[in-house]
Amino acid sequence: MAIGNEQMIEEIRERLNLVNQALIDPEKYKSANEQEVKEIHEYVTSKASFTPSEAAAIADALGQIRK
C-alpha cells in the first residue's frame, strides 16, 4: 500500500529533527507532485543523519514543491 504525501512529509519532518517542525506543514503538501515528495522521502529515510546544510537543502526543496 502506497503512503500519501502527508504521511511522507510527516516522516521527513521527524527524520530532519527540525527545531520548528511547524515550518513543514503536511497539509500544504496534499496536492504536491507525489513523485517529487517520494524522491525526497526515499533520500531522507535512507540516511541516518544529516548535516545542517543537508537539512536546510531538504527543507528548501520541500518549500519549492509545496502547493
Shape: globular
**Share of helix, binned:** 55-70%
Number of strands: 0
Q: How big a fraction of the residues is strand? A: under 5%
Rg of Cα set: 11 Å
Question: Count of helices?
Answer: 3
Give me the secondary-structure category: mainly alpha
- Provide the residue-averaged pLDDT: 90
Compact description:
The protein is built from 3 helices and no strands. The longest helix is centred in the last third of the chain and has 14 residues.
Could you describe the 3D structure shown?
This protein has 67 residues and is mainly α. The protein contains three helices and no strands. Helix 1 (5-16) packs parallel to helix 2 (34-46) and helix 2 (34-46) packs antiparallel against helix 3. The mean pLDDT is 90.
Write out key terms for the chains shown.
67 residues, globular
